[in-house]
Structures are given as structure tokens and as C-alpha cells.
Amino acid sequence: xxxxxxxxxxxxxxxxxxxxxxxxxxxxxxxxxxxxxxxxxxxxxxxxxxxxxxxxxxxxxxxxxxxxxxxxxxxxxxxxxxxxxxxxxxxxxxxxxxxxxxxxxxxxxxxxxxxxxxxxxxxxxxxxxxxxxxxxxxxxxxxxxxxxxxxxxxxxxxxxxxxxxxxxxxxxxxxxxxxxxxxxxxxxxxxxxxxxxxxxxxxxxx
Length: 206
Fold this sequence. Notes:
Blueprint: E1 2-6, E2 12-17, H1 20-23, H2 29-43, H3 102-118, E3 122-125, H4 135-145, E4 150-153, H5 160-166, E5 172-175, H6 182-187, E6 190-194, H7 195-205
């Protein structure tokens, strides 16, 4: 399929051919959900920790005699039933990651790109390059183009001046093609692919 390309100043920059196998699929929510869940679980720190009864700082002494008090039988104050006692079966440091086949990961990226194309939220940019790393100038151009929360995916490497200019624009994210991922694509309002980014993604996903 054909798609029109633009320049940063809003001018026309010809057109590009988009592969139907990557940009023309019917998006499937179940595949996108699986990939996003895998991605977010893998990124989770898993450093949450509570103290068990062997780690709390109370005395280990039995608090009162076993029989004759009329109360329940207790050992020390570290028991989970007491205030400031140890936590029973609380979280411990662990990895939340799980496996997902590479085929599903690739398919998820294809469906994410297709979803953006189908929703009319895909923009093809001639090149993500600026002469000087000026944030104010780039922010003005982005505002004129109407990009609210945009993700720009370039080729193998991002232009250094463009990356530096975009660094302080909180509504603009820039990634090389290798960093393209389903979560960032779906959470953006506008997906911007450079011509080099399109070529790199098609080579990666075929």
C-alpha cells in the first residue's frame, strides 16, 4: 500500500510503499495483550520485600506461660497475629518475567503497526533531522504538525541533533528501529516513522 510522506516543516516528501504483511493486518487484541503483558512483566523490578517473623526485632522470649492464663497459646511477639510482628507469606524478591515465543513478539509488533495505520495515527516522515539541537524550534514544528503525544522511530541510529532537541519535549519520544516495541507504539497518540525506520522495520519483521 502507498502512504504519503511529509517533511518536518509540513511539506510533501513523496510517498512510500508499506508492506501489507506488516501494516495491513487486522489488529488482534489478544496478541497485543500477550505481548504488552510480557513486556511490562519483564520490566517489573520485583524488589518488593516484607519481614517474616524471623526477621522482626522483638525478643524471642515466650511472652507468657503456656497454661493457666485463659488466653491463647503464644510463643514470642514476632508472630503474624501481633502488631509489628512478621508478615505471613508476604512478597519476596523475584522475577515477574515469563517466556513468550519470538514469533508472537514479532506478530505483536506487526499488529501494533497495523493498528496505528488502521486508526489513521501513522505518519511517515522524510527524515528526523535538524541542523541545530534547538528544543524550542523543534517543539514549534511539532506543535504545527499537531502531534500531541508522539513516538518517532528512526532507522538504525537516531540523528544526534534531533535526539538532543527532542530530549526536553515530554510529549515526544525518539527510538531507533531496534528499540521499537508494542507498548510504546500503542501508548502514543501519533506514531511517526521515518523512511529509514520503515525500511529497517520491514527488514526486521519479514
